[in-house]
């Protein structure tokens, strides 16, 4: 494994020779975050997307609350009910609250990234990327099946204490490169949702296999 991190933002790149090595380190990372969170406040809240590499059930974590980011169900009512449920958990302090925007503050959000740079069910140039008030939204026009999905919005993702972004495979190499590249005034961030994942008061860690990192300039330190 190789790793690098930039001083400007709280981000880190972890690069592995194989997907198996990545999965092992990711499991250890989740387990350590879980242990620390339980010691500090008695529970651990983790949200994960359907495309994530690892199954949380394989990780030994105690006192955890697991939430799915895109459930692929009947959408409008499901999104409203899901947001209501999370708001209730925020009220009873099972889920923390971000001081910057009052969004739920998960201990960890685990994301996979598609070759087009989509995360959760937030796709390039989709209007859902612009939502500011909603915690959970729905789409009916996903470019990949199923077309109807629910998803956390970017403000919720960026309010997490920790975000882990997982990418495996050569087909994701260019998206990884663009998502972690330095700032550019000419780059349309909505064309690559993964680039819009920038935790406000948390840490972003990229977990990459060697093929996903094959065109990565590690000198950029993962900042973008």
From TrEMBL:
Domain named Glucosamine/galactosamine-6-phosphate isomerase: residues: 58-206
Sample GO molecular function, one term: 6-phosphogluconolactonase activity
Superkingdom in the source lineage: Eukaryota
Pfam annotation, one family: Glucosamine_iso
Pathway: Carbohydrate degradation; pentose phosphate pathway
Signal peptide span: none
EC number(s) on file: 3.1.1.31
An individual GO BP term: pentose-phosphate shunt
Catalysed transformations (reactions): 6-phospho-D-glucono-1,5-lactone + H2O = 6-phospho-D-gluconate + H(+)
Family in the record: Belongs to the glucosamine/galactosamine-6-phosphate isomerase family. 6-phosphogluconolactonase subfamily.
Protein name as annotated: Probable 6-phosphogluconolactonase
Taxonomic placement: Eukaryota, Viridiplantae, Streptophyta, Embryophyta, Tracheophyta
């Amino acid at each position: 494994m190789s790793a690098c991190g930039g001083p400007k933002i709280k981000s880190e790149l972890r690069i592995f020779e194989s997907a198996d090595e990545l999965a092992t380190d990711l499991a250890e990372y989740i387990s350590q975050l879980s242990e620390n969170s339980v010691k500090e406040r008695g529970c651990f809240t983790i949200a994960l997307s359907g495309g994530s590499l690892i199954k949380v059930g394989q990780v030994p974590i105690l006192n955890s609350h697991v939430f799915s980011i895109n459930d692929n169900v009947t959408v409008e009512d499901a999104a409203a009910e899901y947001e209501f449920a999370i708001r209730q958990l925020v009220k009873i302090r099972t889920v923390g609250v971000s001081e910057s925007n009052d969004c739920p503050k998960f201990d960890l959000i685990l994301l996979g990234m598609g070759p087009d740079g989509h995360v959760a069910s937030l796709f390039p140039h989709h209007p859902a990327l612009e939502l500011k008030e909603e915690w959970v939204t729905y789409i009916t026009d996903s470019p990949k099946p199923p077309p109807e999905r629910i998803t956390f919005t970017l403000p919720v993702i960026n309010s997490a204490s920790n975000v882990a972004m997982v990418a495996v495979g050569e087909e994701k190499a260019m998206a990884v490169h663009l998502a972690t590249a330095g700032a550019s005034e000419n780059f349309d961030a909505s064309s690559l949702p993964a680039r819009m994942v920038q935790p406000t008061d948390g840490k972003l860690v990229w977990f990459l296999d060697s093929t996903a990192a094959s065109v990565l300039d590690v000198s950029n330190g993962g900042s973008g």
